[in-house]
Amino acid sequence: MSERVGDDGEGRRGVRAFTPDFLTELFRNPLDPGYADAAAQRAKSGRPARPGWSVGPVSLVLVVLLGFLCAVAYRQTTAEEPGRAQARSGLVAQIKQRQTDTDALSVRADELREEVNRQREAALGGSQAARLRDLEASTGLGRVRGDGVVVRLADGPGGQDSLSGANVGPSQVLYSDLQGVANDLWGAGAEAIAINGQRLTATSTIRNAGQAILVDFRPVTGPYEVSAIGPDSMRKRYESSRSALTMRKVAQDTGLSFGVRDVDDLTLPAAPEPRLRYAEPAVSPSASPSGDDESSGSGTSPSPSGGGR
């Protein structure tokens, strides 16, 4: 059923005419008559159809307070930046000072070790002292001299100092690179190896801690020099090793520095004295009651194992 509009085309404004094509009329006149009347009254009164955003006193205070807080936070951040930089530089200076003190103590320890060796050789005699020197040289506990090679590795343009702690690119020397070089030098016939003056022994470790590389728990920084004393054929054998071929490829691709050179009359220092651990026999369990009775009956004290022959 539909409501007919007058023939003169005049009709009540805003009244929806229900026609058979309901969907078409709905999209043509979607506004409800109540909303249309409210919009007409608002237009007559001069008020805007949609109220605009107005800044009241409370809103203005909030905006000013927010701006003030942002300004204070920015000023505090910029004011603390020099302090953080100064604290960081102070920590770096302390680390370098501690490293200098450690090096000085190492030198003093070497001097005392040499004095102990002289006193020991004087007490042992000629043949026994010579045998002791040979054993110390083979185990890394004695200073050695001879001809050898030096493998030098250095970070490329993307590398950086290990104290800064920032990210580094693929051109950085890794601890595994030093491990591979040392292992292949041993395989090439090296008799003694040192990394940046740190002598390697059978119990030495090469690992990383953050951005630093540790050799026997002592940090070493680039450029890294792996010095080795060995036979004349050592360099030729090392040149064809896996680590040498790999490092040349890495140096070609990333800009990392890698080189091998012969060195005459190379001197390698002694490694620090190891902390030896001695095994002790376990304490035997207490003797059985029967064993105690038999021992006491014979008039002898019981043996540690609870029995006897």
From TrEMBL:
Family per record: Belongs to the UPF0749 family.
Assigned GO CC terms: plasma membrane
Protein name according to UniProt: DUF881 domain-containing protein
N-terminal signal peptide: none
Compositional bias per record (Low complexity), positions renumbered to this chain: 279-309
Membrane found in the keyword field: yes
Membrane spanning residue stretches: 52-74
Annotated spans, Disordered: 271-309
UniProt KW keywords: Membrane, Transmembrane, Transmembrane helix
Presence of keyword Cell wall biogenesis/degradation: no
Species this protein is from: Micromonospora zingiberis
Record InterPro entries: DUF881
